[in-house]
């Protein structure tokens, strides 16, 4: 993992990012046994593409993507941007105005090797350097919820049955 470079995304990364979103999210939907939710998959891919384009074309909007590359190949990404409406609602307004860390994606061939942790540490360093003292992170994917609970402990907020019966949405408020 030492040869991996973490850098800001640029417009030159558009094609590889769009292919990456499609591949990783398709894998995520299969692994989380939500493959039947094809409309949601399509919407999620399109949302990530729009967020990436905003980050490179309108950086003043506070959205930023860091990319992890190995020998020039994209193998991971992490994003920071304004907390979404679900987070604000689910946190009862506590996280309004906070930055959300999200889109923590690692290519399936590189998962479980510490890359997500490395990208999170890099993003946290960047936030600290900007004078930030906290961020928020959320998840509805079953596998991701287990990963984040291991890393951050029990969530600060649970949006019960947000994605349907028994499918809660979890929110962590993280202090730096």
Feature tags:
single chain, 176 residues, alpha+beta, Aminopeptidase, four-stranded antiparallel beta sheet, 7 strands, 40% helix
Give a structural overview.
- The protein is built from five helices and seven strands.
- It has helices spanning 14-31, 38-57, 85-90, 115-129, 142-152, and strands at 4-8, 64-70, 73-82, 99-106, 134-139, 157-159, 169-175.
- Strands 1-2-3-4 form a four-stranded antiparallel sheet, with helices on both faces. A three-stranded antiparallel sheet has the order 5-7-6, covered by helices on one side.
- The longest helix is centred in the N-terminal third of the chain and has 20 residues, at 38-57.
The CATH class designation is Alpha Beta
Rg from C-alpha positions?
Answer: 16 Å
For the largest beta-sheet, the strand count, sense and barrel status come to: 4 strands, antiparallel
What would the principal axes of the Cα set say about the shape? globular
For this structure, the CATH topology is Aminopeptidase
Supply the CATH architecture. Answer: 3-Layer(aba) Sandwich
- Tell me the quaternary state: single chain
Average pLDDT for all residues: 93
Strand/helix succession? EHHEEHEHEHEE
Number of domains: 1
Domain N-acetyltransferase: 24-164
GO molecular function: acyltransferase activity, transferring groups other than amino-acyl groups
Organism: Alkalibacter rhizosphaerae
Protein name: GNAT family N-acetyltransferase
């Amino acid at each position: 993992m030492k040869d991996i470079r973490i850098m800001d995304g640029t417009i030159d990364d558009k094609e590889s990012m769009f292919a990456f979103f499609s591949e990783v999210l398709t894998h995520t939907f299969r692994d989380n046994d939500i493959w039947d939710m094809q409309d949601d998959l399509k919407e999620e891919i399109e949302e990530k593409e729009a967020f990436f384009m905003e980050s490179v074309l309108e950086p003043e909007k506070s959205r930023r993507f860091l990319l992890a590359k190995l020998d020039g190949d994209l193998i991971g990404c992490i994003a920071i941007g304004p907390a979404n409406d679900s987070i604000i609602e689910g946190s009862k307004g506590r996280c309004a105005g906070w930055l959300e860390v999200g889109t923590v994606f690692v290519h399936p061939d590189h998962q479980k090797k510490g890359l997500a942790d490395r990208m999170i540490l890099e993003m946290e360093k960047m936030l600290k350097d900007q004078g930030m003292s906290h961020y928020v992170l959320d998840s509805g994917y079953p596998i991701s919820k287990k990963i984040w609970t291991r890393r951050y402990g029990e969530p600060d907020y649970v949006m019960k049955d947000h994605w349907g019966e028994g499918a809660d949405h979890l929110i962590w408020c993280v202090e730096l």
